[in-house]
């Protein structure tokens, strides 16, 4: 009987770490945590008993690798060290990126594009990844990242306003306001930032959508992913919600390496 191969993929964002442990039969366990709590998060999973043979890690910031390497070393010290593939920007050989400077392009953007290409739907896509930053990217049917836009995410907009104008009240969560205007500062901020956020994403989506439509002579798909994807719910008709698309891209990297 062929031995089951276990893999671990880890997406290190600006503020959170998402991870997925999968066996060769397709069964997976997922989790997320602040980077400082990753050890505890993984310790609650079967990772120590299963001992993954392949690991792929996406890091947005170079300093995160220096934090993560001892964490992984400690986790795997009692078993044979797995092969670890570090994807730190768009220049990684497993990725396909058409930006002017792939080495300055975020690994998460390129991995989401790779994941889309792996779905073999033969259609281009607008991929919206909503997190600390929001990226709105143009992706070819084959999974090549063509380019896109980067803008502050929902929390970043709130934090920047609070930093620039600390006397303003703090708005918590999305606030619904009936009528043409708010009559109190807190809902004015909450609904104002939310409208600004959604309208900005919608405008960038329209630009990418129309560009892809001209380039490929067909309507592209729209994919929404990321920790704040729920804040864009219902914004774009027909949009697909695909959670943890970057983890899908990391698994595609491991699949490609296995075939080499």
Structure explained in plain terms:
With 260 residues, the chain is an alpha/beta fold. It folds into 2 domains: 7-88, ATPase, nucleotide binding domain (Nucleotidyltransferase, domain 5, 2-Layer Sandwich), CATH 3.30.420; 122-249, ATPase, nucleotide binding domain (Nucleotidyltransferase, domain 5, 2-Layer Sandwich). The protein is 36% helix and 23% strand. The chain is built from 7 helices and 10 strands. A 5-stranded mixed β-sheet has the order 3-2-1-4-5, sandwiched between helices. A 5-stranded mixed β-sheet has the order 8-7-6-9-10. Strand 4, helix 3 (62-75) and strand 5 (83-87) form a beta-alpha-beta unit. Helix 4 (107-118) packs across helix 7. It is globular, with a radius of gyration of 20 Å. The chain starts with 6 loop residues before the first strand and ends with a helix. The model has no long low-confidence stretch (mean pLDDT 89).
CATH architecture annotation of the largest domain = 2-Layer Sandwich
Q: Mind telling me the CATH class of the largest domain?
A: Alpha Beta
The strand order across the widest sheet is 3-2-1-4-5
CATH homologous superfamily identity of the largest domain: ATPase, nucleotide binding domain
Determine the N-to-C terminus distance: 23 Å
Number of strands: 10
Tell me the domain tally: 2
The main sheet comes to: 5 strands, mixed
Determine the fraction of residues in helical runs and give it as a percent range: 25-40%
Q: Radius of gyration, rounded?
A: 20 Å
Structural class: alpha/beta
Residues in β-strands, percent: 15-25%
- Give the overall shape, derived from the CA principal axes: globular
Mean pLDDT: 89
Q: Can you write the helix and strand succession as a string?
A: EEEHHEHEHEEEHHEEH
Q: Given the structure, what is the number of helices? A: 7
Low-confidence stretches: none
CATH topology of the largest domain, by name, is Nucleotidyltransferase, domain 5
């Amino acid at each position: 009987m062929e031995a089951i191969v276990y893999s671990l993929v880890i997406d290190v964002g600006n503020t959170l770490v998402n991870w997925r442990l999968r066996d060769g039969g397709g069964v997976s366990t997922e989790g997320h945590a602040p980077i400082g709590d990753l050890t505890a998060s993984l310790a609650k999973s079967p990772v120590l008993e299963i001992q993954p043979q392949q690991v792929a890690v996406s890091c947005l910031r170079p300093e995160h690798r220096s934090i993560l390497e001892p964490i992984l070393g400690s986790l795997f010290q009692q078993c044979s060290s797995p092969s670890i593939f570090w994807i730190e920007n768009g220049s990684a050989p497993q990725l396909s990126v058409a930006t002017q400077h792939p080495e300055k392009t975020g690994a998460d953007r390129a991995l989401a594009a790779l994941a889309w290409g792996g779905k073999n739907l033969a259609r281009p896509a607008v991929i919206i990844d909503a997190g600390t930053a929001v990226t709105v990217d143009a992706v070819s049917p084959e999974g090549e990242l063509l380019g896109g836009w980067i803008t502050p995410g929902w929390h970043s907009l709130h934090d920047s306003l609070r930093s620039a104008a600390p006397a303003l009240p703090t708005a918590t969560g999305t606030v619904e306001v009936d009528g043409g205007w708010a009559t109190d500062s807190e809902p004015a901020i909450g609904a104002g930032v939310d409208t600004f956020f959604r309208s900005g994403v919608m405008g960038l989506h329209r630009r990418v959508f129309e560009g892809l439509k001209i380039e490929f002579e067909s309507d592209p798909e729209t994919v929404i992913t990321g920790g704040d994807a729920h804040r864009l719910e219902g914004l774009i008709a027909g949009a697909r919600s695909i959670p943890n698309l970057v983890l899908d891209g990391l698994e595609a990297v491991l699949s490609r390496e296995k075939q080499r």
